[in-house]
Write a structure and sequence with these properties.
Blueprint lengths: L6 H5 L16 E3 L8 E10 L2 E11 L7 E3 L8 E2 L19 H4 L16 H8 L3 H10 L23 E3 L10 H7 L8 E4 L4 E4 L8 E2 L10 E12 L2 E10 L11 H8 L1 E3 L7 E4 H14 L3 H12 L10 H19 L40 H4 L4 E8 L4 E2 L18 H11 L15 H4 L8 E3 L1 E7 L5 E9 L5 H12 L7 E5 L2 H4 L3 H8 L13 E4 L2 H4 L24 H9 L3 H4 L4 H49 L4 H16 L17 H18 L8 H24 L3 H28 L3 H14 L26 H20 L2
Length: about 850
């Protein structure tokens, strides 16, 4: 009976057998070249005083609609693959147009794209050049009357002599009379209008032509019109507009008056104020600015200047609504976060929004009651690790905040990613009064610990600290807070407690650059500084601490317990995803550091919400790709492991496995199964031993200026390494700057070699004659010897006849070289 297929293997495709699309397949069209025969004249109407009446004759080859022959693949010489026609701008339908000598002034050589190859930028430029004059002519059509008749006939009513207006925002911009234009734009009051003067088009406006916008009644007539404002300013994507607005003064069925700001919102205009508004911005503009700021980090100042230039590029300061736009954008951001979080449907109102409720949460992290099976907490250890909550912590000192004395009101205090500032400051004033007293016991020097108590004058915040989900790099709700000094434990403790408050989890892993130091007194600080409602309700053994993979290398030995390469149940987690989050946020630091405290929090919250959302959009294909990669790699590595494992006795591998299981439960168990036991002597240890051996000889020596032999040899080895490095650099130096720097290094190295040779003459007198013979050969050559190619004549490189006299130096050099090689191997 055939065994049932593995369900995972059955569902996943085998990409190794995936069929590739064959190259150079399908049918091609062969384009015939231009011919001189059978040409006809065609006319392009050129702008002249408003009429494109003056003509210019050009020749166009009738054969550009060339006969197309279908040929076999092996017969194709010039052609375009049919599947590639489209966005790249290449295609037989436009070949040969305007490429005669009369059009371009000279014969334009054409390089057809090779079959099966996508067009490069160079190809696209070459294809465009023959059409450049025609494109420009079409653009000039828009500045003149185009195809309009000399009788100025209205395209709507047909009346002659009245069609002098056109709309720049309507398709084709047809000429029409004033009445037809106003009738067509009754619901389009923000379109740009131009009027023909007889020689050119000049700017006009619907307001000056008599258009009045009646608010209320969904654009219909109002039986009781109210206040009239004929200088109302509306900001739109096509610039600022002065609009004649009449508000509605009617009462609804409940006898209530519809406020002016409500009437503006109903038409899609966001008012700058609530009382007697005179300025508004369209929803389209605010949505575009919001998205542009999130994606492109464009500042509000630059966007406002752009609007002014669109309005009038010759007099850009006719309207200034920067302050109003700044206020409205802040409200728009806030309202969009409330809307997307569903707060508009809560009968309790916005004021009852819970902490972190506006944050976009990670759908792939464990959320009990949402994406975990019923009874997940009772899963056996072999399954329970799947529900581990991964967090990663880091700080960013570019997101500063200047102390400008701005008093601001928070619209969403602690409702998204930043913690509640008022509660945070109360906690800090109580527990952060003294400098951080914990010292660094790690072999590496951590700036986060060394600079924890540093404060930068003139700044309210020296940066921010943040907590993201460790597997998918989404910012955690209430996982961000300001840093007042350096990266103090007291700040990070609060963020961890805040983001985990009210969360149900069993297993937790926290990745942090300084986790090896931070974790030591974590639970002591928690019990001392936090109320029981904020303390973690879990056993310390259920929390694992890790150092990100890029940072673990600098921590030195005895850090296996913090390595994501060895911790069980972490998969391919690398813990560095938070760094990419900083690169997303840093471009707005120049703007946010000048803001008030509240608007800065709201702006950063908004950008983190955008970051989280874009991460979620990519999770689908990312997780599918990761799953397939993991499946293929586990098959590969399982096979490698099984082949390697059978080479060892079973009782030995069983003992190893038991020792690893014991070490995973208690990291104090010795030896560390993942730590290499150093069985070699390092270069520095050899130097120390040789120096100690030479100490007695130096004390008895009368030559106080003589360098110890071991120091002499070590310096020679350093010069040898510098020669290798300089030789490698000489092979890549091409520019004048690089060559100048290279020559400076050569001169410096040659000076060091010369000084070392003075001591070499004492220890190895015979080298003088060897060096002189090399100098005589160099004199016969035209160029001097390069520093990286100078023969140092170290003891091991001396001729055999001289070696007996320097056997002691050779033995010491051997010890130094062996230690040097061991050090190099240990760093691979």
């Amino acid at each position: 009976m055939e065994p049932e297929p593995d369900p995972i293997h059955h569902q996943l495709p085998d990409l190794s057998k995936r069929k590739r699309r064959p190259k150079n397949t399908g049918k091609f069209t062969k384009i015939a070249g231009p011919k001189k025969a059978n040409t006809s004249n065609y006319q392009i109407r050129k702008l002249d005083g408003g009429h494109l009446g003056q003509t210019r004759t050009r020749r166009m080859d009738q054969n550009t609609q060339a006969a197309r022959e279908e040929v076999n693949d092996d017969q194709v010489q010039v052609g375009v693959e049919q599947d590639d026609l489209g966005d790249d701008g290449a295609g037989p339908s436009c070949e040969g147009v305007g490429d005669s000598e009369e059009t371009t002034g000279k014969a334009t050589p054409r390089r057809p794209p090779r079959p099966g190859r996508r067009n490069t930028w160079s190809d696209r430029v070459e294809q465009f050049l023959p059409y450049r004059d025609l494109y420009l002519a079409e653009l000039l059509r828009h500045d003149g009357m185009g195809d309009a008749s000399d009788d100025y006939i209205c395209t709507s009513c047909g009346e002659a002599g009245t069609a002098t207006y056109r709309c720049c925002d309507c398709a084709y911009s047809p000429l029409c009379c004033r009445n037809c234009l106003l009738e067509a734009h009754d619901s389009l009051p923000l379109h740009r209008i131009e009027e023909w003067t007889g020689k050119y088009f000049m700017k006009a406006s619907l307001k000056k032509l008599g258009l009045r916008v009646q608010l209320g009644h969904s654009g219909g007539p109002c039986p009781c019109p109210g206040r009239h404002n004929h200088k109302f300013i509306v900001g739109n994507l096509n610039g600022f507009h002065e609009v004649d607005v009449r508000f509605c003064a009617c009462y609804d069925n409940n006898g209530e008056f519809l406020f002016y700001w409500q009437q503006l919102l109903q038409i899609g205009w966001f008012p700058a104020t609530q009382e007697r508004p005179t300025t508004a911005f369209t929803f389209d503009l605010l949505n575009f600015l919001h998205q542009l700021n999130q994606q492109g980090k464009t500042s509000l100042y630059d966007f406002h200047k752009t609007l002014l230039r669109i309005t009038d590029n010759s007099i850009p300061l006719t309207v200034n609504r920067y302050d109003q736009l700044s206020t409205v954008l802040r409200f728009w951001r806030h309202l969009m976060m409330l809307k997307r979080a569903g707060r508009g449907h809560d009968p309790d109102g916005i004021d009852n929004t819970a902490a972190g409720e506006l944050a976009v949460e990670c759908p792939a992290c464990p959320h009990p009651g949402k994406n975990l099976p019923v009874g997940w907490e009772n899963a056996p250890p072999g399954i329970l690790w799947l529900y581990t909550l991964f967090l990663m912590v880091d700080a960013n000192f570019k997101l500063k905040l200047k102390d400008k004395g701005i008093i601001d009101t928070y619209l969403s205090p602690g409702w998204a990613y930043f913690v509640n500032e008022e509660k945070f400051q109360k906690y800090l004033s109580k527990h952060a009064g003294k400098d951080q007293a914990e010292t660094n016991t790690c072999s590496a020097e951590h700036r986060a610990i060394a600079n924890a108590n540093l404060h930068k004058e003139g700044y309210l915040a020296s940066g921010v600290a943040a907590i993201l989900c460790g597997r998918h790099a989404l910012v955690r709700p209430n996982g961000v807070g300001d840093l007042q000094k350096g990266e103090r434990y007291v700040n990070i403790d609060y963020l961890i407690m805040s983001t985990l408050w009210g969360i149900w989890y069993i297993l937790l892993l926290i990745s942090y650059d300084i986790a090896c130091q931070f974790y030591k007194n974590f639970f002591k600080r928690m019990m001392k500084n936090f109320p029981p409602t904020m303390q973690l309700d879990t056993d310390p053994s259920n929390i694992s601490w890790a150092v990100p993979k890029k940072h673990i290398a600098v921590h030195g030995p005895n850090h296996s317990q913090f390595s994501l390469n060895f911790l069980p149940g972490v998969g391919k987690t690398y813990g560095e995803g938070i760094e990419s989050g900083w690169s997303h946020m840093n471009p707005i630091s120049m703007s946010t550091k000048e803001m008030g405290p509240a608007v800065r929090h709201e702006t950063l919250d908004d950008h983190w919400g955008s970051w989280n959302w874009m991460k979620i959009l990519a999770l689908g294909w990312l997780l599918a790709k990761s799953l397939l990669h993991a499946y293929l790699m586990q098959e590969k590595h399982r096979k490698i492991f099984e082949e390697y494992n059978v080479t060892f006795p079973t009782d030995l591998t069983y003992a190893w496995r038991k020792h690893i299981e014991k070490w995973n439960k208690d990291h104090s168990v010795k030896p560390d199964p993942y730590e290499d036991i150093e069985t070699y002597v390092t270069l520095q240890e050899v130097r120390l031993k040789l120096a100690q051996e030479e100490a007695q000889d130096i004390a008895l020596s009368d030559d106080a200026c003589k360098m110890p032999p071991s120091a002499f040899l070590h310096l020679g080895l350093e010069l040898e390494e510098q020669q290798r490095s300089l030789l490698a650099r000489s092979l890549t130096s091409k520019t004048a700057t690089e060559l100048a720097s290279l020559q400076d290094k050569r001169n410096l190295l040659m000076r060091r070699i010369y000084n070392w040779q003075q001591m070499q003459d004492i220890y190895m007198p015979f080298v003088v004659s060897l060096r002189q013979s090399s100098d005589s050969l160099e004199a016969e050559e035209s160029s001097p010897e390069l520093a990286e190619k100078v023969n140092l004549w170290l003891p091991s490189a001396s001729p055999p006849t001289f070696r007996p006299s320097i056997s002691t130096l050779i033995n010491k050099e051997k010890k130094l070289r062996l230690a040097q090689a061991q050090d190099a191997l240990s760093h691979i």
